Amino acid sequence: MAHGWGANLELLEPLALPLSRLGYQCRMIDLPGFGESDEPPAPFSIFDFANFCIAYLNHRGLGAVNYFGHSLGGRIGLILASDHSDRIRSMALSNSAGVKPDAPLHKRMRLGLYKSVRRSLEGLGAESAAERLRAVYNRRFGSADLLNASPVMRGTLINVVNQDLLDHARRVSVATILIWGDEDAETPLWMGQALEAAIPDAALIVHKGAGHYAYLDFPQKTANIIDALFRGG
Q1: Which of 161, 11, 180 has the alpha carbon at shortest distance from 75?
Q2: Nearest 5 degrees, angle CA 39-CA 119-CA 163?
Q3: What are 21-58's pLDDT values in tens digits?
Q4: φ/ψ (deg, to 5) at 6
Q5: Domains assigned to the chain
Q6: Confidence (pTM)
């Protein structure tokens, strides 16, 4: 079980408890840079996170497993179930990230201008001015996750959100359930619909009234759905 950005394994426990009562052994991890885990020595990519999970499975002597991932954990699942499908039996993703939306034209132009000016300053040797520009731009236009992150995790976040995983979704070769909330503002429902269309064997189940943490809004219902999938129902 893998959590989302800014979370940790404690936010997986409300789902792990009903799953354990259904007979599952739940393995929860703090991903690098979250919870009790150290930050990576350099910014991670989403592929580094997936390799970390494979290393964990190897370390624990686990072969093929059923997988649950939320948000960032969903991104990881798309990598695992496409590039390491021999290690995944079936997969349940809640409010998965991984579909990169098209930014409006004015945002693309603003970002392009910012990058151009920053490169020019760095080319002139004005690194301090370039860094001040970066700080001002991030304060004005950056997300809360970006602003609150350390330098290493800021670089990690940029690497992760810029990776579109629809091509990987098309190569997912295991049965997949997508759990979503119809009021999710972070990974809107259309992203779940895009993943359902891309993954060859997938079904999207929507929890009415749920937000970005749909599995936490309905933990027992989600556990029952996951149980049906994992048992081949």
Answers
A1: 161
A2: 45
A3: 999 999 999 999 999 999 999 999 999 999 999 999 99
A4: 75, 0
A5: 9-100+163-230 (3.40.50.1820), 105-152 (no CATH)
A6: 0.83
